[in-house]
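Discussion board: Methods & Data

I've been asked by a reviewer to show the raw model output for two of the constructs in my manuscript, not just the figures. I'm not sure how much to include, so I'm pasting the format here to get opinions. Each protein appears as its amino acid sequence followed by a line of discrete structure tokens. Is this the kind of thing reviewers expect to see in a supplement, or should I convert it first? Here is construct A:
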Amino acid sequence: MKKRIKELIILALKKTFEIDIDFNIEIPRVADYGDFATNVAFVLAKALKRPPYEIAKELVLKLPSCEWLEKVEIAGAGFINFFLKSSSWLEVIKEIIAFGEDYGKGEKKNIKVIVEFVSANPTGPLHIGHGRGAAVGDSLANILKFAGYDVFREYYINDVGKQIQTLGRSVYLRYLELLGKKVEFPSDCYQGGYVKEIAKEVLAKEGEKFKEMKEDDAVNELAKIASRKILEGIKTDLADFGVFFDCWFSERGLIDASEVKKVIEWFKKTGLVYEKDGALWFVSTRYGDEKDRVLVRANGDTTYFASDLAYHKNKWKRGFKLMIDVWGADHHGYVPRLKAGMHAMGYDPENLKILLVQLVHLKRGGKPVAMSTRAGEFITLKEVLDEVGKDAARFIFLTRSCDSHLDFDLEIAKQQTMENPVFYVQYAHARICSIEKMAKQKGLEIPPLMEIDLTPLCAPEEVNLMKLLSQFPDIIEDAARTLEPHRLTHYLTELSAGFHYYYNHYRILGLPQNICAARFVLAQAVKRVIKTGLNLLGVSTPEKM
């Protein structure tokens, strides 16, 4: 419907002003202001230097007449409000029946998008914060693909550098402890119980092999063994969470292919670097960063920043026009330097979108949960999944914008009640499946859906449901445009609320054939949209609960 309104306005614009402009069409919060409202007169007022009310009057006079339009009013200083006939919303049901699982799907855009998310260092298990980032990245990738983009999912593995060496040293020291040697375990080593478990596995498999080696050689080899082992666990946890990647991209591979070295050489040739205190610095302040950044340390080691520049250049070389990185909020200070580096290399920094995912505060019955005793310093994603399951975790992670802190109550997530947000939506789907089953048991004959007379659907609650269903394509488009998957979560909650109210106040079966059939097909349309929406969020759609 929104699309139809826009087409009417564009026709009126061509007739009246012969001008092409961008304008908004919104759903008013107050029903008295109609079904749709536009600010087009205000946008034109700036260009034409005329009062918006006068422009609105001219546009309304030039609007083509439509049988589905009840009236058009001008409100305030020049807002144009559109009121649709109740019967016009019946077309939405027909559209959903016709398109099925493709209802709301966007046209192919021929734009390659890479969504890089999670990308946790293989130095420890995934924690609950990584879980939220995984839910955001995976759902966003699903939505972008459904909206018509060519989407590629990638996990960047930081498998070189100081943190990997620290992991190797941590395992080495625990390994020596198991052999009875008294060692001092530094505070900057990894403290988690998983380090001891890896050391036990190494000892069981390799015996005293690493005790006889030079310490540096032992640390290097154990770093490789441990990071591989942890990465296997990460892949398993993500698979259990319903998250899969098209590519696991290794930083080591980037270095071995000399891509980091080539980027540094390029910066040297362009004069965008200088030496200070033995290190090589990039003049990132020239591109909006707060201070210059080191590319090569005084000891000759390249920085993570240098690797990240090479990695993002590699993304561009692979033909991705839009790059989306999903990071933890603790990386917020890293954004300006990466954008500065991309700008310096000739890439539009606006085509690099970085989503910062805020912290998750885990609670149980409203009270904060103590730190995990098994994992050492954090609550793992696996612990949460084992307790509440994939569906609850994914949905709750997406109930708020990723840049907002999130309270996650384990007790609520486990409840089979309407208090649980994912149960609330899934139960709407299950209720409709139950209606279908009852209809079949009663031998109810429903004509082919496209042949059903929908005119009995005229109650306010039915019209409200149809209005909500009509919004689904716009929700998909908006979630893809703003990179905000929580918009879909909120929408599904609102649609489910509308259906639950309808279900509790109106009978669907056991009525005259024409009313029964019309209400049945309305329920089918709601079910279709809920199923599509939950699939995009990576949440299952049970048929009974």
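Construct B, same format:
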Amino acid sequence: MRKFLSYFLAVFVIFLAWALASWIIVLVRGRILLPYPWDTFAVGFAHRGEFLAAFGASARRFALSLALAFATGLPLGLVIGASDRLNRWLSPLIYLLYPVPPVALLIILYMIFGIGEAVKVVVIAATLFFQILVASIGAARNISPSHILSVLSAGANVLQLHRHVVLPAVLPDVFTAARVSVGLGITILYIAETMLGVMGGPASGLGNFTYTYTMRPDLSMAGVVGLSLLGLGFYALLEILERWICRWRYAGKSEG
């Protein structure tokens, strides 16, 4: 209940600050440059069919990218983290590529995957992949060898070792990294949908919606609100999944 109230208060403060900023701009410039929140919501509702189609397209892309990043980054991180040799050989390469924004390689990815749906998913997934990979490696390296030896000496096989020791130690850090990277992923989603739409690719998603209505600030702001809600939704989804999968971490804790 306390968390719900904190979210509600945050939304109220943002709404109030937005309305105040719009009012100040009208006073200073003499015209509406930043639409009022209620005008944005009204025009968004009037164009709800187009808005919901764009929201759905972006949500599908981000969900697929997130699933792809988890499916590749987590197991690869566990393998590298468990091997001193692999960690020594691959870490320099990983940390060399890690700071490079995948959107900077968008033209190369476009040449490889074409201008369709795949390149948008790949560039978002690549962004999330490195966040999850680095978190997985770090968490796996921090597992105490004595814990591993005690489980193996008790007769556990490799599958049981990963189920009862490795994953419980790694998953909380991985989910934290994934949640933190949602904002960056939404940014890359917007850039990919906008750039590829301009380049002649499939024009869909909130990024394209926001760019298309650049000359309609009220509709463009509706797209920005949609991107914010999309990021909030995936952040909340990851938190719910973490509390379900890593429920031992929250045992005995009260929400208030």
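Answer (T.O., handling editor elsewhere):
This is acceptable in a supplement if you add a one-line summary per construct. For B, something like: The chain has ten helices and no strands.
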